[in-house]
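User: Can you help me understand a structure? I only have the sequence.
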Amino acid sequence: MAGGAAEAPDDLAGVVLAELMRHKCFACDARFDVIYPEAGMPVLGRNLDRHRNVSGCPACGSDFGRSRIGGLALTPVS
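Assistant: Let's start by predicting it. Here is the structure, written out as tokens:
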């Protein structure tokens, strides 16, 4: 146990804790359900580097700084 972080049980290896949140692009108003990771959990948040993060709006192409859209995965809201 390094740095006081608890070890994950073997059956949780590679798991990342996340929640589904609804976001709106600040540039084009497109709406998405975003899987947003919980990085504060030392056991279930340390595997984030194994996942590709989405950064920016796929609808209008604006970057994260303009759209404020980012997470592990996006689903358009109809």
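Now, to help you interpret it: The helical segments are 64-67. The radius of gyration is 15 Å. Let me know which part you'd like to focus on.
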